[in-house]
Amino acid sequence: MSPAILIAILFAFFILLSLLKGLKVVPQAQTMVVERLGKYHRTLESGVTVIWPFIDKPRTIPWRTSVSGQKGEKTVKLVDTKWIDLREQVYDYPKQNVITKDNVNVEIDALLYFQITDPMKSVYEIANLPMAIEKLTQTALRNVLGELELDQSLTSRDTVNAKLTQILDEATDKWGVKVNRVELQDINPPQEIREQMEKQMRAERDRRAAILIAEGQKQAQILEAEGFKESAIKRAEGEAEARIKRANAEAEAVKLLKGVFGSDSTYTQYLVAMRYIDTLGEMVKGKDNKVIYMPYEATGVLSSLGGIKELLKS
């Protein structure tokens, strides 16, 4: 084999090896930043592409990833990678202590959802993007919750989430990152504060129950009073109607008796005698009454009885 042929074969082998080494397949929703001779050259799109070996070099970046241990526990560590994930990602940060405006030390557990929109900025505008996002999130949490009291932080999670999202999105925009939302998973006050809150909630429930009972009793008393009122009105109306009917009956009786006796004096004498007898009957009424009543004017009574007898004869 002549030297020229050998050199041609070696050259072809070198070209083929360079092509294989420079061939890159970029997965969907991922990208890679390529530098040429130490300077930014281009950002690779998804699909098959070729770079010049020995001249073009992918830029490695630190990235945050979760690693499972032997017992199944997950730990977070930083690794160097050439691939930049363009999908929305979530960072679950470890719990941290935050002091609220009313000096209560609470434990916060937060989630951050973000997405890389400009790979070049995420590589060249910040040295360690995952760590920078984590520290920025922790600082923003302390600042926002430090302006709120404990009750406000517990009842205004949506407001806190929206404010944190706005702050982090504005701060990370120059890094080519879009913060979609921040979620507070849990806010844990100290044990003694939780016990006080439970006592306060129990007292509030007891107060509401007492108010409801008082309202019920008040309504029942109102209804009972209205019932008594209606009953008294009906009773009074019944008594009035009975009196009217008795008066009408007595008036009819008077007319009849006057027609029987003929004269007013005789009718008057009859009425006096009847009232006298009725009164005596009321005086001696009673089960254990052993008193004997004798009218002072017995002759008057006898004469009245005689008068009644004469009237009945007539």
TrEMBL record:
Transmembrane segments: none annotated. This is Protein QmcA. GO terms for molecular function: peptidase activity. It is a single-pass membrane protein. It is found in: Membrane. Residues 21-201 form the Band domain. Keywords: Hydrolase, Protease. Coiled coil: none annotated. The keyword Translocase does not apply. GO terms for biological process: proteolysis. Belongs to the band 7/mec-2 family. It comes from Sphaerochaeta pleomorpha (strain ATCC BAA-1885 / DSM 22778 / Grapes). One of its GO terms (cellular component) is plasma membrane.
